[in-house]
Automatic annotation (TrEMBL):
It comes from Ferrimonas lipolytica. It comes from the Bacteria. The lineage of its organism: Bacteria, Pseudomonadati, Pseudomonadota, Gammaproteobacteria, Alteromonadales. The keyword Protease does not apply. InterPro entries: PepSY-ass_TM. This is PepSY domain-containing protein. The keyword Electron transport does not apply. Pfam families: PepSY_TM. The chain crosses the membrane at residues 21-49, 133-153, 165-188, 290-312.
Length: 332
């Protein structure tokens, strides 16, 4: 059996069914999908405007942690999404409180670009609401729109019209958009699993509270970093402090993730979270893949706008045609 280009096309009945799903879902979820795409395009652009420094030495991290001893915090985490590696203190609600540069060790205020980034990221992740189900539902709707679009373009014919440009752009950006959407759904499911089970922070806090004073060994910053140096720590992911005890998650020189809880060192199992995060952000290929994702994101915005311009023009033509028909009907 010879496979021809014509045989790869779907039947007209399936094509029309997918076209209805594609249009109706895109219309029904037009606002949340556009927010996801537009904010995603902005977030994909910001990394291209900044240089990303490498991981700072432990001595500089130690200086920043020492600075935070003057500030009450729930736990500390590292952020490098603005291009300047910082140690950020987080409250129990997960909101950023203060930050310290890992290169100067000084407490610093958030810059306008960082504040803008945080706001856009918050919109992208939550739609400025507590209804996480809306973000997840909109992402599923976007996935169906993309999959139905993938079937629709099998009957694509080159045309120099707006709908032709819509089809052409869809062929170019379909695979990256599917990668972003699927990876976001995977990360949403992982986030739900983490919320359903006690977090490492809460579990560690409860274990610390349950310790007797004789069992608890409170280390100061110098002793903590001496222990980390002895265990060949390369980069630190997070630092939690509860009742004077530290819980540190770090990566050693061999690439193994470990957690130090003040009295025990634990090797953590390998996680697929980093893989899906790199697929979603486009960081798997460095600047080239990030640039590709940014271009595809803005192309998706244009794709969305073209679709609604086409729908508006068609609806307007039908309305004009209906008015002209009614105008020609004689009044009895």
């Amino acid at each position: 059996m010879t496979i021809t280009k014509k045989s790869l096309r779907v039947s007209k009945q399936v094509h029309m069914r997918m076209l209805r799903w594609h249009r109706y879902l895109a219309l029904l979820f037009s606002v949340p999908i556009f927010i996801l795409i537009f904010t995603g395009a902005i977030l994909a652009t910001i990394p291209l405007l900044r240089d990303y420094p490498g991981p700072p030495p432990l001595e500089q991290v130690k200086a920043a942690v020492t600075k935070f001893e003057q500030v009450p915090y729930q736990y500390l985490m590292f952020r490098n999404d603005i291009g300047e590696a910082r140690l950020v203190s987080m409250s129990a609600a997960g909101m950023s409180m203060d930050s310290a540069s890992l290169y100067s060790g000084e407490l610093i205020e958030a810059k306008p670009m960082e504040r803008f980034y945080v706001i856009v990221r918050h919109i992208h992740k939550t739609f400025l609401s507590d209804h996480q189900w809306l973000v997840e539902l909109s992402t599923w709707a976007l996935l169906v729109v993309l999959l139905s679009g993938a079937i629709i373009v099998t009957r694509y014919r080159r045309r120099t019209t707006m709908i032709g440009w819509h089809y052409g752009l869809a062929v170019v950006v379909l695979v990256p958009l599917l990668a972003m959407t699927v990876s976001s759904l995977v990360m949403l499911q992982k986030h739900k699993q983490l919320k359903a089970t006690p977090t490492a922070m809460a579990a560690n806090a409860s274990s610390v509270m349950g310790k007797s004073q004789s069992e608890s060994v409170a280390l100061d910053v110098d002793q903590l970093f001496t222990v980390l140096t002895q265990h060949n720590a390369k980069t630190i992911s997070s630092i939690q402090k509860s009742n004077g005890d530290y819980s540190v998650t770090f990566v050693d020189q061999d690439g193994l993730a470990k957690r130090y809880d003040g009295d025990a060192m634990t090797t953590l199992p390998p996680s697929t979270g980093k893989f899906w995060s790199e697929v979603h952000l486009g960081s798997w290929g460095g600047v080239a893949s990030i640039g590709l994702y940014a271009a595809c994101s803005y192309s998706a915005v244009l794709l969305f706008i073209l679709a609604f311009v086409v729908l508006f023009k068609r609806s307007y033509k039908r309305w004009r045609a209906k008015r002209s028909r009614l105008a020609r009907v004689p009044v009895s």
